[in-house]
Structure formats: structure tokens, C-alpha cells
């Protein structure tokens, strides 16, 4: 249906009929204009170097994105539907570069030569999350190991209270910062929206929140156990 609609749009524009006659306004992005739900942008033909006009429209919701475009001069049209669209892909500038080059080839135009460098911010975020998850897992394992294998050290009540308070403040504070701060930092989105849009990053954030909470509770339990043994030995 979308391809049929695109073919109709192409014929209408080539014949100078509606909606090609609707007025357009500049978009503020180079020489492109927008009108009647369509974007009109100048491009250079990859065949003879002449200037052509590309008419297009694209839209996205979490999980899906579509692109419709056609070259009025050559009659080439292009419709693409992706069942993959999310925050991580939007953050990856290299995904935009690959898409722009692919669309330009399909429509017979030159791709931009001044594209920004390929910096995959979404992937960087993902691997930082994975590194932190592994570090926290190691910290949890080492904390449990010292609790089980190491003889219980002497613990004063004051030191026990300070250690527990520090662990709970840092651990639960970090968890609260993740659960409250992350949605607020990404445009006030809800966790449900984040889970739909970028499940990998969302699940990693939840794993980090769970690990920091677990680590804080393990440290608290260990300190209480050591304090009880100290009190029993001195009593």
C-alpha cells in the first residue's frame, strides 16, 4: 500500500498536480522545504551531476521506521520499512550515515561528502554499561568470598554503623539515581517507553540498579554478622 501511494505521489508530482502545487516552507536544513506532509530537497544526480529534486517523507515510532522518497527527474522511487528503530540506533551516527548512502544510491543521487564521523554513542553507552555490570559482579563475588572464607575481623559499633550507612547511601542512592534520573535525562520518558525503544540499554540499567542494591545489602549483612561475632567474643 505504501509503495502504491508512493507511485501515485510520483505521478502527481511529475504531472504538476496536487499535492505538488501546495505551498512549501523552508525547514532550516540547507535548501530543503516542507509542505503537505512531504519534504522537498535538492540533490546532485550521480549520473550527470545535474540538480534534481527529491521528494520524501519519513516517520518512526518505537520499533518501526519508514522512508518514502522519489526522484522526479528519473522517476526512481524508493520505499523502505524497518522493523527496528530505537534510541540506541538514533544515537549511533554511523547508522544514519549508512542509511543516507543507501537511499542516495537507490534514488540515483550523490551522497553527502561532508558527513560527520562515525561515532556510535549508543554502542559506547552499551559497552560502558556492560563493563560496569561485570565490575559490580566481581565486587559482589569478592565481598561474598571475604565474608565466607576470611575470619571475622573485630568490628566496633561505630565502625559498623559508618560502614552500613555508607553502603546503603551509596548503593541505594545509585539505584535511585538510575531509576529516577535516567528517564528524566532522556526527555522525561517512562521506563515502559525506554524498554520498548531500547530494550538492551534498559535491561542493562536495571541490572546495574539491581547489582548496586544487592552489593549494598550484602555489605550490610556482612557488617552485622561481623559485629555480632565481635560482641559475642567480647561478651
Structure in a nutshell:
InterPro entries: Beta-lactam/transpept-like. This protein has about 240 residues and is of the alpha+beta class.
Report on the structure:
The structure is a single chain. Strands 1-2-3-4-5-6 form a 6-stranded antiparallel β-sheet, sandwiched between helices. With 235 residues, it is an alpha+beta fold. Helix 5 (157-185) packs antiparallel against helix 7 (199-234). The model has no long low-confidence stretch (mean pLDDT 81). The protein has 2 domains: 1-107, no CATH class; 121-233, no CATH class. Helix content is 57%, strand content 16%. The radius of gyration is 28 Å and the shape is rod-shaped. It has 7 helices and 6 strands; from the N terminus they run αββββββαααααα. Strand 1 and strand 2 form a beta hairpin.
Strand and helix layout:
Elements: H1 2-14, E1 25-26, E2 33-35, E3 38-44, E4 51-61, E5 64-71, E6 77-82, H2 87-91, H3 93-107, H4 121-149, H5 157-185, H6 191-197, H7 199-234
Antiparallel strand pairs: 1-2, 2-3, 3-4, 4-5, 5-6
Keywords: Membrane, Transmembrane, Transmembrane helix
Transmembrane segments: 126-148, 160-183, 203-221
Keywords:
235 residues; alpha+beta; six-stranded antiparallel sheet; 7 helices; 57% helix
Order of helices and strands: HEEEEEEHHHHHH
Provide the domain count: 2
Structural class: alpha+beta
The major β-sheet equals:
6 strands, antiparallel
Give the strand order, joined by hyphens, for the main sheet: 1-2-3-4-5-6
Q: Beta-sheet strand percentage?
A: 15-25%
* pLDDT < 50 stretches: none
The number of helical segments is: 7
What is the overall shape?
Answer: rod-shaped
Radius of gyration over C-alpha positions, nearest whole angstrom = 28 Å
Task: Give me the count of strands.
Answer: 6
Overall residue-averaged pLDDT value: 81
Transmembrane segments: 126-148, 160-183, 203-221
Keywords: Membrane, Transmembrane, Transmembrane helix
